[in-house]
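DM from R.C. (forwarded with permission)

"hey, sorry to bug you on a friday — could you get me a structure for this? deadline for the figure draft is monday and I only need the backbone to look sensible"
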Amino acid sequence: MQIIGLILIIIVIGLYFFWLYFTKTQKGAMAVEKKGIQTFNILVKGVYSPNIIRTRVNQPVKINFRREESTDCSRYVNFPDFKIRRELPENKTVAIEFTPERKGEFVFTCDMSMYQGKLIVE
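My reply, with the result:
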């Protein structure tokens, strides 16, 4: 019985490390460009999906967040480096538009930082 428990623990740990490797090696979603605006669609349901997006510097960005859950944690999204905080009503799409003026990696999170994403500006 103890051996079965040990095997299950090893499997769970292995799956966790596989998940970490997979999420850290994501290249990130590329924008759909319309009329010079880089547009992304992000689903909020347990996580931000996709959670990594790539944009170009000095080009307008439009990120459409659709929240399909009622968890209070995901009620707001924050882009602290851009001083943006928006409410995400349940089952509605909210567009956030801005123009990144410098290259770098910038996080976006919920109010409690349990949901996290990354904006990579190149």
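R.C.: lifesaver. The radius of gyration is 17 Å.
me: no worries. The domain at 28-121 is CATH 2.60.40.420 (Immunoglobulin-like).
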